[in-house]
Amino acid sequence: MKPALNLVLCGRRGAGKTSAAEAILGQTELHSVSSSSECVKHQGEVRGRQVSLVELPALYGKPQEEVMEESLRCISLCDPEGVHAFILVLPVGPLTDDDKGELKTIQNSFSSRINDFTMILFTVESDPAAAAVVDFIRKNRDIQELLQSCGGRSVVFNVKDKQQISELLDAVDKMRHNKDTTCCYTTETFAHAQIEKIIQLQSLNSELMDLKTKTKGSL
């Protein structure tokens, strides 16, 4: 029996997070996160192991307080061990403004630490190995920059192909074993990320105050 996995599915509204969850767990008619403004947790046995999937609702455009509440809630749903991997669900195609806004919001909320735990799940309804799909991902600048930020970890996934489930889980296991950092993103990791943001903000405010003082002195 392989160890249990705690995964968080994230991405913009309409990215296909629920469809991906249904495919991974082999379940249908799961409660969709799109009909709720809160995280939704699904559980099941996949290839002989327990898998927990937390769907994070789209955060882009929401008030900052709500963004922080949902971010913390999604990690808390994976307590006590924490999140083993954040799976960013992206349909194969050019990044939309909502995609870019969602990515920026996630980065701001969880900090750059999330990059060590992120894998991209490119979803297609055709052959994942098709030349057109492979060429698009390889040649699109936005996609390549995104891949670079999370160590190039990705899987091209047809939600109708059950054989790919093992490939996805193996990719997550490989990511966990190759990391030099801690094996999970925990509530403690999240707390440290917020403290770092406060320190950076205080430092910036201090620099601005010094600049104002110098400016006044020179007048």
What is the element layout, followed by pairings?
Layout lengths: L4 E6 L6 H9 L14 E7 L2 E7 L8 H13 L8 E7 L5 H14 L7 E7 L6 H9 L1 H9 L4 E5 L5 H15 L8 H32 L1
Parallel strand pairs: 1-3, 1-4, 4-5, 5-6
Antiparallel strand pairs: 2-3
Task: Write a structural description.
The chain is α/β, with parallel strands linked by helices and about 220 residues long. The protein has one domain: 3-Layer(aba) Sandwich (Rossmann fold). Helices cover about 45% and strands about 20% of the residues. The protein has seven helices and six strands. A six-stranded mixed beta sheet has the order 2-3-1-4-5-6, covered by helices on one side. Strand 2 and strand 3 form a beta hairpin. The mean pLDDT is about 85.
Structural key phrases:
219 residues; Rossmann fold; 6-stranded mixed sheet; 7 helices
